[in-house]
Amino acid sequence: MAPTRDRNPSSPPLSRYGKKRDFSVTPEPAPPAASSPVENGHLGFVVQKHWASRLHYDFRLELDGVLLSWAVPKGPCYDPKEKRMAIHVEDHPADYAGFEGTIPAKQYGAGDVIVWDRGTWEPVGDPREGMTAGKLVFRLHGEKLAGLWELVRISKPGDRQDQWMLFKKRDAWAQPLAEYDVIKALPDSVTAKPLGLIEERAPRAARPARSESSEIDLCAAVSAPLPARLEPQLATLAPSLPTSGDWVTEAKLDGYRMLSRVAKGRVRLITRGGHDWTARFPALAAEVEALALNSAWLDGEITVLKNGLPSFAALQDAIDGNANQDIVYFLFDLVYLDGKDLRKVPLWSRRMLLAQLLHDAGEHIRFSEDFEAPPTQLFEAASGLGLEGLMLKRRDAPYESGRTQTWLKAKSRLRQELVICGFTARGGKDGEIGSLLLGYYADGRLRDAGSVGTGWDARIARDLWARLTPLEVDAAPFEVDVARSRRWARRSAGSERWVRPELVAEVEFADWTADGVIRQASFRGLRIDKPPGGVVREGGKTQAPEPQLKLKITHPERVVDPSTGVTKADLVRYYASIAERMLPHLKARPIAMVRAPAGIAEDLFFQKHAERTGMPGLTAHDRSLWPNHPPLLSVDTIDALLSAAQMNAVEFHTWNSTVRRLDKPDRVIFDLDPGEGVKWGRVQEAALLVQTLLSELGLHAWLKTSGGKGLHVVVPLAPRLDYDAVKSFSQAFVRHLAKTIPERFSATAGASNRVGKVYVDYLRNGKAQTTAAAFSARARPGMGVSMPVAWEQLNDLRSGAQWTVQTAREYLSFQQQDPWADYWSGSQSLAPAIKRLK
């Protein structure tokens, strides 16, 4: 059967797409006047998660300027045994690949859309012939999907729908559904939370064999005269370590960049800024000349080793004190050699050749070795040794002048160059520097970066004074106004002395503040090799990548909820997917867990303390925290949460106080529990009345579903009052409600006391009492989830168990705002409310 698509020459492209939509109403992109085939050779793909009348996934492949499109109800799966139905629908415009948003009611496809995955695809064979034949094989390079996939048409001529099957081909990326469900593991938008290519995050193919064992490849070398100048290649600061790709990893040396130009056997040592420093280091120049090269450009770094490690301070002492015999020249690249320009030669070949040239080098000329271990391990080792970090270079990369992405620097400490813009005198007396006032360039303008007042001794303080006083000017050189609150504590206000921004300092510091100034800084030395005009803010230190979560679930097939068929695997995966949101509600709070070893239809039991059954990762607190009781437990990490779920914990309940201030609750909770015969509308009305009264008392409250029959109204507090005072307030509050509106509210426990009424449970505010945590599942048929919601959603809620283990995470993937975002900064004093309630 030929595909039912707009390939008829008499039918304009995207006509079916356009006829189905009113573009004056829907935010979806209108079809262009003409489809433009991709020109850069990279075909894009996108998978859009679409919650319309039901949840499904729209799988789209770019071809001939449009997006070939299939609706996949269950979404893609890495298990080759899982054949997923894919309904071939109308082509979409290429611009649709970036569409996220809400398609309005009464429009075609009304509902919410997010970009679940995106990337490029490679057809295997001719894709147009594949579409006609009904068999399309292709490779995906996405943020969630990778490897070889296939679409096969299964419909017959005359069928109402053009049905296909989407499935994973067997390759290094294939894995059983029981081990990994990509739909549940990664439910969110990649535009809201970009992941980067999965092939780089978690490569499956074996790492290419290192070519050092092969012959040097100089095929890309070019015959050329020796360049008169060479701008060095510079590294980009890596916010996180690469987790894939073939990288040469070296130690980041704490020194000065230095290039060597050899012409007719004579050497000139050139700084990064192009200055000739040969006269400063005659011994080093002589050792480079001893390599007996006719013409060359070498790249490296000079430093001084102290206890076997590079020391920037020792290098400065060596330079300033003319102790050049201690300076070591580490060479890491060979850019030109004897009539051949090597810049297009792969890095590994350049380094192999350089290593051979340095085999018999002198005592102070060394090859910068690279290391075979994974970057994460090397980064940890470098940090432990106190090294500045790592250099990571693409193994096959050419040499490119200027800053590039093929060379990365990974910093284990925050450290960079800053321009000296002023100073203060130590103790207010001339002769020694007390602090340096610093800046950096942004958009070509000099900006304040704060100050540094430590890191030198008296000798260096006098030397800095001698260097800076000749540069004094009358006014601050900053081209952006300096906020008074951002100045170096202002204790010496008026004592600043400003200088022409001509010197550069190397500074180590704890962090950048929100205002863009450094804090807890320490001076490391002057950078006389770097021009001030090139000093820009670099950012933070490199973060080691978080290890990928791998779940090994025991008895994954065990049914937890017979009414829905939810299995233990479903429950554990739910907690894995919700952990980032749930942990702030659990961390550092004593917990009680409801465990269901045989499922929620069988015996359940509470666990509040450490017992025989070990749960690795849970924190067991000191007995002295709560004398005469077993140790309290808390769930502080994702490992602890999943460990508990592995041990059949279904519900997680928390105290109203943290471990740190156990006797001072930081919230009060009102649990709205409907009695027999109470319709849901009355529960909603009760929540609104509770909120209204709290507002009259000057208290802001947040709302969540209970996961069961009712709702929870939560009021964050400043932890000042003890449990007795907070419980007393909650009791008085509930009794006031019941007295004021007795036909709606009950303040007395017991089923007979709440018939036709909403019981507002204040007992949960006593010491050691607990309430189901936000995002906790409930051990009840259907397995509802306690979901934080906005007050504006109250009227739209259908029940206290509106979201379940099976639907909660999908719902959250479409939410762009956290309705509880302000909860964490919403602590309030209860004392004024107590007075008003009396």
From TrEMBL:
Keyword GTP-binding part of the UniProt annotation: no
Cofactor(s) the protein needs: Mn(2+)
Underlying gene: ligD
Lineage per the UniProt record: Bacteria, Pseudomonadati, Pseudomonadota, Betaproteobacteria, Burkholderiales
EC numbers, comma separated: 6.5.1.1
Protein name: DNA ligase (ATP)
Recorded GO MF terms: DNA ligase (ATP) activity
Disordered: region residues: 1-39
Domain of life: Bacteria
Record-annotated ATP-dependent DNA ligase family profile domain positions: 320-442
PANTHER family (alphabetical): BIFUNCTIONAL NON-HOMOLOGOUS END JOINING PROTEIN LIGD (PTHR42705)
Organism, as annotated: Paraburkholderia guartelaensis
Keyword Nuclease: yes
A Pfam family that the UniProt record links to this protein: LigD_Prim-Pol
UniProt entry keywords in alphabetical sequence: ATP-binding, DNA damage, DNA recombination, DNA repair, DNA-binding, DNA-directed DNA polymerase, Exonuclease, Hydrolase, Ligase, Manganese, Metal-binding, Multifunctional enzyme, Nuclease, Nucleotide-binding, Nucleotidyltransferase, Transferase
PROSITE patterns for this protein: DNA_LIGASE_A3
